[in-house]
Amino acid sequence: MSTSTLPPQDLVSIADGRSVLQFAPWAGGRLLSWLIDEEPVIRWPEQANWNQPARVRGGNPLLFPFLGRHRVDGRLGYWRDAQGTVRELSMHGFARDLPFAANIDDDGRGLRMTLVDSPETRSGYPFGFRFEAAYRLADSRILDVALVTTNTGTAPLPWYAGHHFYFALPHTQRAQTALELPRTRRRYQLPDGAISAPEPGAPRYTLDDPLIVERFHCLEETPPEKPVTLVAPGLHRTVTIDLARPSSVPWYAVTTWTEAPDSDFYCVEPWLGLPDAIHNGLGLRWLAPGESETAALRISVGELR
Predict the structure, then answer these.
(1) 115: closest CA among 134, 98, 91, 93?
(2) What is the reported pTM?
(3) Residue 109 DSSP code
(4) 90 in helix, strand or coil?
(5) What is the CATH number of the domain that holds 89?
(6) Residues 180-193, buried b or exposed e (16+ Cβ, 10 A)?
(7) Is residue 173 within 8 Å of residue 202, measured between CB atoms?
(8) CB atoms within 10 A of CB 260
(9) Does residue 128 lie within any of the structural domains?
(10) Which of 296, 300, 259 is closest to 149 using CA atoms?
(11) What's the average pLDDT block by block, 10 residues per block, for the chain (305 residues)?
């Protein structure tokens, strides 16, 4: 199959001065990139395969209604409800594969994208819902992001969503780049799908540490007493993720991941739960009919001299 490096539909941008975010609402409500002074904070690869945008290593894929891997009797991509019915649902859910409606704020600094249930979603997730992802530039270096889930059906709705931010970082700079965390307990997913026992987390790691690839840094306090911060001297930059926003439900963990030793990105991913929470309960949320919940965060980009 041939691949395309050109998007098949128009992209959407919001901006504040020289800070620009680009989106593809029709491709999973995907934030593609964030540039400040033409330098990438969140990266999108130049040779992205637009035949499968959900699989591109870049931007911020939205993970909903469930995140991570889930299994039933060893079968990956299935889940069992309280009545014992087994349904198929792909890893990280379906949101990243579906088109969102989009509305830009009047001042051009914000974008709200919305996904609602359909026959396609109800086959694997039989609930009425509205899922919204709202991005807004508070100023040229501060981005507010909110995930809003509403139960539009008549039955309690299970969910645990998350982000998958691909932060730009040359792989040669991993050893000098640090991740600073609030108090956490470190866990990971075992080959059989179970979650490891918690072990003490460190307040600081360097990104060349193999110990943090595909690790869940579970927050000891919610809201956390301090933010999550990437300190990147090689980029003269700090990236701070504030997970203690007003009116937000509590974030459960921050996941760290990169694909390969030469990948020029590092993912720092705020999650509301852990993989397979629908079965293990680790972060699983239940939303009553007619109710809404918001998971909010703020990303601030600072300068290092």
Answers:
(1) 98
(2) 0.96
(3) S
(4) coil
(5) 2.70.98.10
(6) bbbebebbbbeeeb
(7) no
(8) 8
(9) yes
(10) 296
(11) 71 97 98 98 94 93 98 96 94 97 97 98 97 98 98 98 98 98 98 97 98 97 96 98 97 98 98 98 98 98 93
